[in-house]
Structure formats: structure tokens, C-alpha cells
Amino acid sequence: MAIEPTDREASQPPEFGPAFREQLLDLLTWRRDVRHFKRDKLPDEAVERLIGIASLAPSVGLSEPWRFVLVDDPERRAAVRSCFEACNAEALAAQDPSRADQYARLKLAGLHDAPCQIAVFADRGTDQGHGLGRLTMPETIEYSVAIAIYTLWLAARAEGFGIGWVSILDPDTVHAILEVPEDWHLVGYLCLGYPQNAEETPLLQRQGWESRRDTENVIFRR
Predict the structure, then answer these.
(1) How far apart are the C-alpha atoms of 165 and 35, rounded to whole Å?
(2) Gap between the Cα atoms of 145 and 73, Å rounded
(3) What are phi and psi for residue 122, nearest 5 degrees?
(4) Is the confidence at residue 12, as pLDDT, over 70?
(5) How is the beta sheet containing 184-193 ordered, strand by strand?
(6) Hey, how many other C-beta atoms are within 10 angstroms of the C-beta on 95?
(7) What pLDDT does residue 119 have?
(8) What count of Cα atoms within 13 Å lies in the side-chain half-sphere of residue 18?
(9) Cβ-contact 62, 181 below 8 angstroms
């Protein structure tokens, strides 16, 4: 579903005042990587609407390389969970012993409860965009998809939904489970649904896994 500009948007850009900017900051602050979901179904056409908004994201050469695969089939979902469990066991074994117990308590998946699961791929073979901007940095195809995922994340949060990005998966295994074209490269596997709770502070920060850097520590001048 393509989102078309309104007549006002076509004639002149909108103005975003202080109240909007404050709400935007709230949205950015309260966007969370959700791991605990309610099992309530999403409203009809909500996912399609959110993907339409996500497709407003910028892309290199206007290539729009994102491909959203809605994983509804129970057997495929079970196979993805098995892939996660195998990869998670490897990750646990590779942890420093001082962090292993803490890692085990994180419960890093919403794969059991989230009503919607979406695998997001980058179509590396797309002709759209005619290769513009990709000769020297072909990875911008994946960057474009990552931006679309973040746009989806914010749009979902604005409607009261949550997203959890499951990265502890083997991309080749997921590719085979979902039987997608060879040129498609997995960028993110997302769980989407209603969060069990809302927290301003990230889970990993609350549980002492890591803390945020001060902005001054990520800015460099040359």
C-alpha cells in the first residue's frame, strides 16, 4: 500500500511546531525493543498500513529494496524458533562466564507470544533505482532496509504497538525456511504486537547489561 501525499503536502511543506517536536522526542525516547508481548491479535489491516508507512523511508537511488515477509504458517514459525534456540545456545556458550547467568535471564525472544512476525529482506538484485549510489557502497541496499525497519518501529509505537528485533538467528537457515529468492538478504526478523508493559529505559540498561553513552562521547571533529 503506497502512501500518497495530500494536496497540502504537494503545495508546501508542513510546519512542525514545539508541541510536535516534543511529542517526536517522546516517541523516540519511548521506542523500545520489546521482548514480552500480549497474545492479542492486531486490528485488521494494521500491519499493511504500518508497512505502507515504513515504505516512506529513504532508499539509495529510490531503489526501495525492502521486502516484508509476513510469517503466518505455524510450521515455519516453529522452524524459526528452533533456529533461534540453537543460535541462542551457541551465544550463551560463547559468553564470558561472568555474564553467562545474566545473559540467560534476558529472555531475548518474543517468538512465542507476538501475534505477528515479519522477516525483512534486502533485495540485492532489484533493478529499481538503476544502481544509482551503489557502485562504491553496495551495502547501502541493506542500510536502506534498516531505515525502513526503524520507520516501521516508530510508526508501530505511535499506534501503541511494540516491535522486537530478533537478531539471534542464522540468516541462511531463515532464508531456507521462508523459501525466498536467492538475491534476498535477511536484515531483520521482527516480532510485532502489543507490549506487556511500557518502559522508558531499555531492558538491557534496566538489567545492568549495558548503559548508554553520553552524546559528547560519540561526536568527533576533524
Answers:
(1) 9
(2) 24
(3) -100, 125
(4) yes
(5) 66-70, 116-123, 184-193, 162-166
(6) 13
(7) 98
(8) 0
(9) no
CA distance 45 to 51: 10
Task: Give every CB contact of residue 218 below 8 A, 6+ residues apart in sequence.
Answer: none
C-alpha cell recorded at residue 210 = 549495558
Residue 207 amino acid letter: Q
544509482: which residue's cell?
Answer: 132
Say which residue the cell 529499481 belongs to.
Answer: 128
pTM of the model: 0.87
Residue from 56, 55, 63 nearest 137 by CA: 63
Q: How far is CA 218 from CA 205, 212, 213, 214, in A?
A: 18, 11, 8, 7
pLDDT tens profile 160-179: 999 999 999 999 999 999 99
Domains along the chain with CATH numbers:
32-200 (3.40.109.10)
